[in-house]
Tetracycline efflux Na+/H+ antiporter family transporter Tet(35) (Hydrogenimonas cancrithermarum), 460 residues
Amino acid sequence: MQESYGVYSLLPPLIAIVLAIISRNVIVSLLIGVVSGYFIMEQSIVGALLESSKGIVSLFEKGWVVKTLVFAIFVGSIIELIQRSGGVDGFVHFLQKKKKLVTNKKEAELLAFFIGLAIFIESSITSLIAGAVSRPLTDKNGTSREKLAYICDSTAAPVCTMFPLNAWGALLLGLIGSQVEAGVITGEPIRLLGSALVFNFYALFSILLVLYTILAGIDFPAYTKVETPHLEFSEKEGDIFALIVPIASLLILVFVFLFITGGGDMLKGDGSTSVFAAVLGSIVISSLYYLVKKSMPAEEILPAIWRGAKTMVPIAAILIFAFAIGDVTVKMGTGIYMAHFANAILHPALLPAGIFLLSAIIAFSTGTSWGTFSIMMPIAITIATNTATGTETLLPLVIAAVISGGVFGDHASPISDTTIISAMAAGCDLIAHVKTQLPWALLAAFLSILFFLLFGYLAL
């Protein structure tokens, strides 16, 4: 078993989270968390600084990290191109003037909500598209950026896990399949995952609560100052296809590259490669469309691409340090330390709720739901199969508990890449997004625990 530094393994993520909340400087907070972790392991300031540098540099040797960073940066280019070409003006004119579909705050928020439901290819793409498309309308109608970030975040990962025809599904099927191959459980991975998704309570409650806040007209505190004069789009017709072409090409290309990288099976496709290739392909296709339609002068396209990319460099820096602290928690055995008590202290009926809480704590501490799935899925399945009674009925529940707990912890964590990207998409302050989303995430988590307790007892 991997070495664990015990209770000390909790310190780096806790230090990063507390400092981020207090200082509102996420990059510095994450860096301090990384260095503190290596200090515990190296017992030397010099060693900690040296290993921190090595750890951060080594991230660039990982293909998925580089692809994720390129994706995050060049999404900024797509957003800039859409704005400069008149795509946003055209979309707003179409909704407000031509079709009169969005005329008030509630309808603007519902637009973001339904975009989030409709796009379940990849959580980052869901948040980014919902935020970029809806933000002019929500700004214009008085919705705070914090509420838009909440809508983007809570209809991203939950939807991706409810309809896992994407990289999320590929990961989960792989984790379950590895347990089938190891002989821990029997059955078809896709059937086992499908039976578990019925109990994905956090995703369900998260989506329902978003809809409730919209229909009930609940306002979120507005910490982010919004300059509105440049959002007066009503007099400009623009070109709606200048928005549709980049977004549609991005979505279609993700499917295409998932199919290609999966050798004909999208569920086996490489998610990071697919979004990386799709964002670059979308920029090329969009640029060609703008040239043909003369939406932008040729000499303005390349500067717009670089200008949009530059706006995302700070976000890329945050992602790098978030990945770095995730590596530190793996090296220190944070997940292992928190998980090894479960089998000894939990009654079988309490197992789903316990797995949910444990997964949530790990995801919150590490800032990654995927990492949590990877840590907890084998543990949860092994514990369920070693339970004296109710194995067949408990198994879907514990699989769902891992998924739900991972998504909840990821939502609540200020060092999560999905939290960061949702704040970026909505154009609001990261810590403000965390603070305003947390009460609703906790309510969804509370309801999830109740249902996991109820079904845990019914399963025995």
User: Anything to note?
Assistant: The CA atoms of residues 349 and 458 lie 8 Å apart. The longest helix spans residues 430-458.
